[in-house]
């Protein structure tokens, strides 16, 4: 299997080696032929304009889909976590850049081989379809939140979304792989607004911030209502913390 990857990427296994992904991920994605590659924080998986030769399955770490405008403004369209597929673009060239947020690993899946297998393997086809529909649902939620909601509602939605990505049950705390600037560029806010909003949620007693990267959810009921843009949520009833 010949899967082209960016030459500056250091492969965990020799290029072309076949690997059972069940050995390296809990996603249970039924794909046994892939090139496993690792990335340093900030390193590109693919850049805007690169050919769409491969799809990518995140095995470890967090990745982001980025678009930079001509005047230098950056928009983050998605964060990808273990079990997510990215690079699923219909054209011959990528319209977004995919970068590693943290040190991470992806499985590069040949686009041509994936399409051929989808025709003959219902389990694989279902896995790809489920992954795409989950990504679409998150994208719709993201667009709705950024288009209509306040800074507090956007950040609450972001934290609630991340807590729901934990396997098995909703997490009581969130470890942020991304920096404040990443969050700002994802939510359509300034970094100063994101910092102030974190402080506001803390003062209102919805969250605790033991470190800059760890968020403890103290009032999941109120955070959920705020995340849903429920303007009747009784935020004033939350317990204030110091």
Written account of the structure:
With 242 residues, this protein is of the alpha+beta class. The chain folds into two domains: 10-143, Jelly Rolls (Sandwich), CATH 2.60.120; 149-237, Winged helix-like DNA-binding domain superfamily/Winged helix DNA-binding domain (Arc Repressor Mutant, subunit A), CATH 1.10.10.10. It is 33% helix and 21% strand. The protein has six helices and twelve strands. It has helices at residues 111-120, 122-148, 151-164, 180-187, 191-203, 220-227; strands spanning 10-11, 35-39, 44-46, 54-60, 63-68, 74-80, 85-86, 97-100, 104-110, 173-175, 207-208, 214-217. The strands form three sheets. Strands 1-2-9-4-7 form a five-stranded antiparallel sheet. It has a four-stranded antiparallel sheet with strand order 3-8-5-6. Strands 10-12-11 form a three-stranded antiparallel sheet. Strand 11 and strand 12 form a beta hairpin. Helix 4 packs across helix 5. It is globular and about 55 Å long. Mean pLDDT is 82; it is low at 1-30 and 235-242.
């Amino acid at each position: 299997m010949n899967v082209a990857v960016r030459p500056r990427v250091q492969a965990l296994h020799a290029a072309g080696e076949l690997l059972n992904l069940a050995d390296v991920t809990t996603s249970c994605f039924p794909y046994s032929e892939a090139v496993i590659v690792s990335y340093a924080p900030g390193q590109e998986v693919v850049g805007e304009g690169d050919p769409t030769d491969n799809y990518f399955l995140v095995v470890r770490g967090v990745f982001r889909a980025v678009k930079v405008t001509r005047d230098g403004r950056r928009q983050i369209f998605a964060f990808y976590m273990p079990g997510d597929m990215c690079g699923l673009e219909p054209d011959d060239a990528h319209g977004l850049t995919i970068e590693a947020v943290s040190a991470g690993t992806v499985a590069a899946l040949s686009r041509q081989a994936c399409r051929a297998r989808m025709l003959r393997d219902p389990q694989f086809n279902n896995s790809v379809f489920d992954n795409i529909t989950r990504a679409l649902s998150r994208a719709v939620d993201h667009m709705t939140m950024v288009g209509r909601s306040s800074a507090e509602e956007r950040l609450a939605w972001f934290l609630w979304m991340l807590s729901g990505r934990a396997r098995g049950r909703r997490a009581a705390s969130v470890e942020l792989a991304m920096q404040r600037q990443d969050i700002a560029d994802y939510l359509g806010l300034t970094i100063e607004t994101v910092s102030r909003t974190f402080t506001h949620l803390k003062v209102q007693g919805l969250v605790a911030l033991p470190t800059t990267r760890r968020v403890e959810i103290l009032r999941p009921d109120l955070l959920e209502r705020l995340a849903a843009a429920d303007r009747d949520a009784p935020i004033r009833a939350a317990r204030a913390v110091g």
